[in-house]
Amino acid sequence: MTKTNLADALVHGARPGGPVGKQVNWPVELGSTVVFSTLEEFETAKEARFENGTPYYGRYGNDATFSLERLLAELDGAHGATLTSSGVSAITSTLLALARPGDHLLVADNLYGNTRAFCDGLLVSMNVDIEPFDPMESIGEKIRPSTCAVMAEAPGSGTFEVCDLPEIVRQANEIGVPVVFDNTWGSPVFCNPLNLGADVVVYSGSKHLCGHSDAMLGVIAATEKYHSRIRRTVMSLGDKPGAQEVFLALRGLRTLKMRMEHQNKAGIDMASWLSDLPEVDRVLHPAFDSCPGHENWKRDFSGAAGLFSIIFKPCPEANFRAFVDALTCFGIGVSWGGYESLVLPMTSERSRNLGQGPLLRFNIGFDDLETLKADVTQALEFLQG
Ligand SMILES: *Cc1c(COP(=O)(O)O)cnc(C)c1O
């Protein structure tokens, strides 16, 4: 989708239709039972219950969820989109739809923590063979006839390297293996994984799409080949988004492009300011050419979220903790993509190889950047002890 079309779709898409004199927005569309006047109408709706567009019973969706799904499918160039109750449920339902006992699943070693925990827990107990791979290296050798999918994400959780998605797709699709891509960071504004060849794209809608830290939501957008299998799995698991969350996502999408554009600029500004501090060893941000996969980011993304990490030079742990505690504009919290600024200390196998000092992830919100810089500056005194 071109930039202008994207802006228009976000403003005009998924609005209530109907007769003259209608509200701009959907109401919070609550409901379980849907009634029909004739048995024939009921049977037709039942037949079509897994598809977008025919109300049958609340668990399968209503007019507001169908509209939101159609808009999301349009943004991603997908055959269809399915909403779930959280980003994690979007990922777990997708993997459950694709993996069968005895299958082999390739998972990038920089995935969101809960994605990996689900694979190592429930999928292993279902006798799925989980094999991690380094997303910055070729996966060609690792793909087997029993491989059911490749699960990747960019940039990597906490470490921010950007894999070569088209190359992963090329190697996987060569023998018909689907690629599932978590695009929560880029959002449909900055990256279109399906256009790059991915088969399924998943999002935590709790981050940028809703955008105000007040809702939990997940999205799965897929090509025709995979859409209905995954949608049926979501519905047979009984997962569904709440009505209020759907309302909040529809509202959040109206300003998504503006918010992403601001976060792109603010994140790069803060990251470059931080990278010049004597206490900072390195910044992990895809827009910086020191970031592994920077070239992939330049080719495949048109901007960056306000989420990145820095690695401090080695310092006593107590000083690092005192620094984090001294920040007043940055809350300590998981999640991100809202209006508020956040920090989160993170460590992983991958991050331990990147630097010796502590790693701190930043989410840059909509605060004044000078205020944020002044806050970091005053807290740095605690880092020095
Ligand atoms: C937050 C997050 C998720 C999980 O989403 P929830 O809505 O919190 O369940 C999945 N992937 C990424 C990259 C995330 O940041």
From TrEMBL:
Any Pfam family hit: Cys_Met_Meta_PP
Enzymatic reactions: L,L-cystathionine + H2O = L-homocysteine + pyruvate + NH4(+)
Keywords: Aminotransferase, Lyase, Pyridoxal phosphate, Transferase
InterPro entries in alphabetical order: Cys/Met-Metab_PyrdxlP-dep_enz, Cys_b_lyase_bac, PyrdxlP-dep_Trfase, PyrdxlP-dep_Trfase_major, PyrdxlP-dep_Trfase_small
GO MF annotations, alphabetized: transaminase activity
SUPFAM superfamilies in the record: PLP-dependent transferases
Cofactor(s) required for function per UniProt: pyridoxal 5'-phosphate
Domain of life: Bacteria
UniProt record similarity statement: Belongs to the trans-sulfuration enzymes family.
Protein name per its UniProtKB record: PLP-dependent aspartate aminotransferase family protein
